[in-house]
C-alpha cells in the first residue's frame, strides 16, 4: 500500500480525536502543483487532516465511510499544461472508493471555454463555445469533467472548479513568465487573469464547507494585459510572428496568447461567499518572488482591454490631425449623450476599417469626457496590430453577451 494511503486510512478510523474534516488530495506522485496546493490548504485549515494520495500504482485501500471526507482531484496535464491526462484521470477515478455522501472537488480549467476572435470576455459557467471555435483543448477538459460525473453518479457530491491561470500550475504561461526573454505574438496583447494559489485554496475551502455541487469559475477581480504582465515580471518581450512559432506550437495553443479569454467569478462569489484577496498583479508577484504582501500599490487595467492613456495619446496626435485637418469633422447633438449612466449610440457604418467609429470616439471623449465602447466584428480581431488597436480603443466582440456586460458595468 502507498505510504501516504496507509497513513491516511488509520487516521480516519482512529478512536481518538476526530479532525474537523479529512481531506484527500488525489494526484500522481510527480505532481508538484498538487503538493503545493495541499500545503496551502493545510496552512489555511490546520484543523483539517490532509494527505496526498497517489492512486496510479495500486488500488486504494477501503476508506472509512465518513461523510466529512472530501477529495480533491488535481489531474496531471500534458507537457505544455494545456490538456489533462485523461488516462491518469480514468485510472485514478476507477481506483478511488468514494464513500457515499463524500465530496469530490475536481480541479478543471478555464481552458474549457476555448478562445478565439468571437469569444466574449468574462464568460459565465453557462457559456458554450461555438462548434467552429472549439478545439482539442476545451474538448479534453470537457471529457475530464464527464469522466468524473460518470464515476460519481448518485454516490458523491461533485463540484467542478474552473480556475483562471494559476502560475503555480506548470503550463506555458508559467514557463513564459519564468524566463528573462518572453516570446509574444506581435500585434496582439490579450487580457488575462492570474489567480494566486492562496485564492484557489480559499475557493476550494468555501466549496468543501458548503458541500455544494455544481460548476464554478474561480478568478481574481482584476485582469492584466499580457504585455504588462511581462513588464511587471521584469522580463523582456520578444515578438515572434505566428507563422514562425507555428513550427514549434500548434495554432490552437498559440491562440491563447493571441486572444483574450477571461472568465466571470460572479457565481462563486454570490453562492459560496468567495472573495478573492489578490489581484492578477499580486498573484504574479507572489509567483515570481514569493511576495505575499498585498498592500503594495496595485495597477488597474480595464477588464476588456481599453487603454485610456492610449486613446488620449492618439487624441492629441493622429486623431486630432484626421478630425480637424484631414476630414474637418463637424458634430451636432452631443447634448443628448448622458454624462453618466449607461447609454446606447447607434449609427450607420460603411466600409471595412471603421474610421467613422474611431472619429466618433475621439469627438465624444474630447467634448464630453466619456469613453464609449463599441462592438467589433470578430474578423477584425484576427489581424495583428489592428486587433490591438481596436481593443485598446474600447472595442469588444460584437455579441449580446458583450453588450449586456458593458451596459451593466456602466
Briefly characterize the structure.
The chain is 36% helix and 13% strand.
Provide the descriptors you would attach to this structure in a database record.
disordered N terminus; 410 residues; single chain; elongated; Rossmann fold; 36% helix; two-stranded parallel ribbon
Q: What layout of secondary structure does this protein have?
A:
Layout: H1 3-13, E1 22-26, H2 32-44, E2 49-53, E3 69-73, H3 86-95, E4 103-107, H4 136-151, E5 157-163, E6 165-166, H5 172-176, E7 181-184, E8 191-192, E9 194-195, H6 197-210, E10 214-218, E11 224-225, H7 226-232, E12 236-239, H8 242-245, H9 251-254, H10 266-272, H11 280-289, H12 308-315, H13 318-326, H14 355-368, E13 374-376, H15 386-392, E14 395-397, H16 400-408
Parallel strand pairs: 1-2, 1-3, 3-4, 4-5, 5-10, 6-9, 7-12, 13-14
Antiparallel strand pairs: 8-11
Explained architecture:
The protein is of the alpha/beta class and 410 residues long. The protein has 2 domains: 3-289, NAD(P)-binding Rossmann-like Domain (Rossmann fold); 308-408, no CATH class. The protein has 16 helices and 14 strands. The chain has helices spanning 3-13, 32-44, 86-95, 136-151, 172-176, 197-210, 226-232, 242-245, 251-254, 266-272, 280-289, 308-315, 318-326, 355-368, 386-392, 400-408, and strands at residues 22-26, 49-53, 69-73, 103-107, 157-163, 165-166, 181-184, 191-192, 194-195, 214-218, 224-225, 236-239, 374-376, 395-397. It has a 6-stranded parallel sheet, sandwiched between helices. A two-stranded parallel ribbon has the order 6-9. Strand 1 (22-26), helix 2 (32-44) and strand 2 (49-53) form a beta-alpha-beta unit. Helix 2 (32-44) packs across helix 6 (197-210) and helix 3 runs parallel beside helix 4. The longest helix has 16 residues, at 136-151. The radius of gyration is 24 Å and the shape is elongated.
Amino acid at each position: 500500500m502507498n505510504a501516504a494511503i496507509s497513513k491516511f486510512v488509520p487516521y480516519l478510523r482512529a478512536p481518538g480525536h476526530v479532525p474537523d474534516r479529512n481531506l484527500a488530495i488525489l494526484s500522481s506522485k510527480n505532481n508538484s502543483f498538487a503538493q503545493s496546493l495541499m500545503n496551502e490548504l493545510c496552512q489555511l485549515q490546520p484543523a483539517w487532516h490532509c494527505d496526498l494520495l497517489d492512486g496510479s500504482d495500486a488500488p486504494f485501500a477501503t476508506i472509512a465511510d465518513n461523510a466529512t471526507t472530501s477529495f480533491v482531484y488535481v489531474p496531471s496535464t500534458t507537457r505544455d499544461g494545456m490538456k489533462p491526462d485523461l488516462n491518469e484521470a480514468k485510472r485514478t477515478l476507477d481506483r478511488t472508493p468514494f464513500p457515499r455522501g463524500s465530496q469530490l472537488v475536481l480541479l478543471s480549467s478555464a481552458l474549457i471555454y476555448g478562445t478565439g476572435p468571437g469569444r466574449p470576455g468574462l464568460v459565465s459557467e453557462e457559456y458554450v463555445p461555438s462548434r467552429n471555435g472549439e478545439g482539442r483543448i476545451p474538448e479534453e477538459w470537457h471529457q475530464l469533467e464527464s469522466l468524473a460525473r460518470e464515476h460519481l453518479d448518485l454516490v458523491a457530491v461533485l463540484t467542478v472548479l474552473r480556475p483562471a491561470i494559476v502560475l503555480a500550475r506548470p503550463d506555458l504561461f508559467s514557463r513564459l513568465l519564468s524566463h528573462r526573454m518572453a516570446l509574444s505574438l506581435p500585434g496582439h496583447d490579450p487580457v488575462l487573469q492570474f489567480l494566486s494559489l492562496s485564492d484557489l485554496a480559499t475557493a476550494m475551502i468555501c466549496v468543501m464547507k458548503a458541500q455544494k455541487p455544481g460548476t464554478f469559475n474561480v478568478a481574481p477581480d482584476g485582469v492584466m494585459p499580457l504585455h504588462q504582465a511581462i513588464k511587471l515580471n521584469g522580463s523582456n518581450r520578444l515578438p515572434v510572428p505566428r507563422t514562425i512559432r507555428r513550427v514549434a506550437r500548434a495554432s490552437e495553443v498559440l491562440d491563447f496568447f493571441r486572444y483574450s479569454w477571461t472568465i466571470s467569478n460572479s457565481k462563486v462569489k454570490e453562492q459560496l461567499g468567495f472573495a478573492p484577496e489578490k489581484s492578477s498583479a499580486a498573484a504574479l508577484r507572489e509567483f515570481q518572488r514569493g511576495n505575499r504582501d498585498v498592500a503594495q500599490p496595485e495597477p488597474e487595467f480595464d477588464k476588456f482591454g481599453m487603454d485610456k492613456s492610449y486613446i488620449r495619446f492618439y487624441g492629441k496626435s493622429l486623431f486630432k490631425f484626421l478630425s480637424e485637418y484631414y476630414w474637418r469633422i463637424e458634430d451636432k447633438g452631443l447634448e443628448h449623450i448622458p454624462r453618466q449612466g449607461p447609454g446606447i449610440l447607434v449609427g450607420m457604418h460603411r466600409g471595412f476599417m471603421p474610421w467613422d467609429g474611431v472619429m466618433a470616439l475621439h469627438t465624444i471623449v474630447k467634448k464630453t469626457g466619456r469613453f464609449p465602447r463599441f462592438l467589433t466584428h470578430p474578423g477584425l480581431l484576427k489581424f495583428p496590430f489592428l486587433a490591438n488597436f481596436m481593443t485598446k480603443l474600447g472595442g469588444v466582440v460584437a455579441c449580446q453577451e458583450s453588450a449586456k456586460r458593458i451596459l451593466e458595468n456602466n
